Amino acid sequence: MAITNRDIWDYIDYVKDNPNDTNKWIKLLVSKIAIPVLKSDDYYLDEERYTSAIAYAEANYYKLFPYQKFIYAFAFIRRKDNDLLAFSTIIVIMGRGNGKDGMMMPLMNFLQTPLNGIHNYHIDIVANSEKQAIDSFNVVHDMLEENKTKFSRKFKWNMETITDKATNSELRYNTSNAKTKDGKKTGAIFFNEYHAYETYSQITVFTSGLGKIPDPRKFIVTTFGYVRDGPLDNLVKTIKRILSTGKNELGYFPMYFCLDDDSEVGNEDAWIKANPSINYMPVLKNQIKMDYIEAIDTGQPQLMSEFKLKRMNLLAAETEHEVTSWKNIEATKREIPDDIFASDFIVGIDFSKLTDMASVSFVTKRDGMYYVIQKTFFNRQSKDFRRVKAPVEEWNKMKICGMNFFELIDDVEIKGHLLTKFMSEMMNKGANITGIAADSFRFSIIREFIEKDLGFNVNDRKFLKLTRPSDIMKVTILIDSLFNNHKIVVGDNPCFRWSVNNAVLVPIGRGNYEYGKQEQRSRKTDAFMSFVHAMTMADALIDEKPADLSAFKVYTY
Question: What's the chain's average pLDDT?
């Protein structure tokens, strides 16, 4: 056996001996990643640095739990052939309150010191908010403040930077104006609460500075959050692939703590799967129990959703106020047939105001499936443009069925003819518009464009439907069923997925609902709502079937 460290094998034995205490992802990490490396002659543990890190953390912070020592150890495993780190990215996903900062910041502090032995090994704490970054930084800052006599000769510090005098290694936090950090020489990056990132812009700025200092590392620690289709979702997909296959070219070491499924939420004994510190922290255990009781007793779906998401790390945590689950939203990401254009379509149009965002959805039905081709416009001059953190510049370059589904406009407003231009393009491809639905209060803004540009008779009430809240209320059940049964196909349209996830179901009494927004200015719903408007005319759709050529025979003479 190549690596025999007792701390490592004690935790592996614990996982094997207590199968109910860990989820399938931890078990896979042990069986497909950890054990093969430990038994291989190609790797070794840097024992001196590892034992020094443990001693430093426990002498100056607190006694580490077994799973935390396990994580520390794999940060110091190296390849024998080139002496590079075997795992350059350490990932810890766990429930809220388990001491992520308390576990990782002593290690960040250690990496600054002569015990690690690398000069100018700067460590950047990166977070989406200043509070998150400062909270992590203060773990080390407060320890130094409490032990000034012991550390004043070794470190110098202020409220922004901590510097080891011997190695000149800085610990610093960063949040705002990420572009100014491009190219910074960095030894390690500590990404805190990774779930909060909606794009990769700040992430890539900091990672570009890695590789100029020996032993470049990334540490990613987070709970789950409400941002979907972003960096964390992508990271989780990669983690699951690595743990399922054992193929780990990226050098990830992912400790992914969560419940195995939703049925375990009410099982107190299962909570340890998402909260590995629970048996070492009685206060945490009690608080989690109180959170659960409160969610049950109040009957508030928001509280139960928060409990599942933040305490149990259930990524697909659902509430009665969500339009649908993320699994169902992702199911819309399927290919649209090439011949779909030669179909009858109903069209939905949505816009709050043409100075902001507008969307047009074409919907057709084939073999019980609802196919959606849409285009959304977003005005750069909108007051909300900077508030929206979605990767709109990337969307602006993407296409579905050879057509742009998203377009950025830089004008005083989104001109109505842009909407009709898209509608005309669809008609030129063969689309037959059998009806148009739009908000009754705002249709007058684009009425003239529909008449002049397309030649439609907007006075024909069979063709034009001016939707009211009662119309939308009636289709919420249908839309819910279509999502649940994966009957909606939109292609790879991240704007649509983002828009659905931004929407909420708002109860209006007697078991009825209407659609609202999670947040009025930054969480836009126009792409989804244009689909909703179209669906108010769903009764007019004829279920088309593709041509069946199987009955035709080929005759040769």
Answer: 90
